Amino acid sequence: MLASGEVYGKDQPLSLMLLGSERSYGALEGVAMELEDSLYPLLREVTIGIDPVEMFQDADWCLMIGAKPRGPGMERADLLNANGEVFQVQGRALNESASKDCKVLVVGNPCNTNALIAMENAPRLARKNFHALTRLDENRAKCQLAMKSGKFYTSVSRVAIWGNHSTTQVPDFLNAKIGGLPAMNQIKDLEWFKKDFTPTVATRGGALIKKWGKSSAASTAVSIADAIRALVVPTAPGDCFSTAVCSDGNPYGVQEGLIFSFPCRSKGDGDYEICNDFILDDWLRSKIKATEDELSQEKSCVSHLIGLDGGSCA
Ligand code: LMR
């Protein structure tokens, strides 16, 4: 998708620098051969390597996809230790060699806290430019709303995901629209929103792993493309997109310094602002508080990786 121009535009040439590990080097060579033989007109160069400092050199965008994957029965928190150290090393490498305006999108789980670790280890880069992927959750929420209402998914808009990319995430049905009208006016079933829609979206990743023993791959790739496009194409009036970003200065009172998913808007220049006009009721507020508490707990678990003292991992 990147090489074909679907993401950055049909007039934007690009170079891909693919970072792997010693163990995956053969696969990396295979991917590079596939890309070369596809003759993508916009793809100017493919470089492969296992040294993050070399592979991040002058990078404008860094998509941090790799992480130890979650297997059946594992929760995201189980991955904190396994992946945290990798993101510390990679954050330092970003700091050393990436472009100072580099936009970083973390996909590997637990992605919010991995993004936090990378951000805190890369002080030369703007904190604002670190993202964790919650567009996948937004897409899942849109799919559920479209199926329930019997409308096509392109008519579903303004769907925010709040908080962590985990089972505590909050898919926002209160502000969502279908065909430009409040979703709750068209699906008049509050019980469905609370007891079906919300857990279905929040546990979709785990449900998929149970089915075929692996994390979602195709829908994740699509949502990565969507997440980047959301930053390089202006947001339609009244719409939003979800991305987890550093909570400094947000209008919803979320604890500063967490990587927290918010509804955002972009002018299409790679930058974004957090939407300040989302209405929250008591139910949403309490759910948002729970996901905020989880992220705060995750942060305390990785304090040793982000230069903070103390903390504990319950
Ligand atoms: C997903 O939401 O599909 C993945 O984040 C699940 C996972 O933990 O790999």
UniProtKB/TrEMBL annotation:
Main subcellular location of this protein, as a coarse class: plastid
InterPro entries reported in the protein's UniProt record: L-lactate/malate_DH (IPR001557), Lactate/malate_DH_C (IPR022383), Lactate/malate_DH_N (IPR001236), Lactate_DH/Glyco_Ohase_4_C (IPR015955), Malate_DH_AS (IPR001252), Malate_DH_NADP-dep_pln (IPR011273), Malate_DH_type2 (IPR010945), NAD(P)-bd_dom_sf (IPR036291)
Keyword Chloroplast: yes
Active site per database record: H165 (proton acceptor)
EC number of this enzyme: 1.1.1.37
One Pfam family matching this protein: Ldh_1_C
GO biological process annotation, one example: tricarboxylic acid cycle
Keyword set includes 4Fe-4S: no
Organism: Chlamydomonas eustigma
Binding-site residues for NAD(+), renumbered to this chain: N83, V107, G108, N109
GO molecular function annotation: L-malate dehydrogenase (NAD+) activity; L-malate dehydrogenase (NADP+) activity
Keywords recorded for this protein, A-Z: Chloroplast, Disulfide bond, NAD, NADP, Oxidoreductase, Plastid, Transit peptide, Tricarboxylic acid cycle
Family under the similarity heading: Belongs to the LDH/MDH superfamily. MDH type 2 family.
GO terms under cellular component: chloroplast
Protein name from the UniProt record: Malate dehydrogenase
Residue ranges of domain Lactate/malate dehydrogenase N-terminal in the record: 16-131
Every Lactate/malate dehydrogenase C-terminal domain range: 134-304
Localization annotation: Plastid, Chloroplast
Known catalytic reactions: (S)-malate + NADP(+) = oxaloacetate + NADPH + H(+); (S)-malate + NAD(+) = oxaloacetate + NADH + H(+)
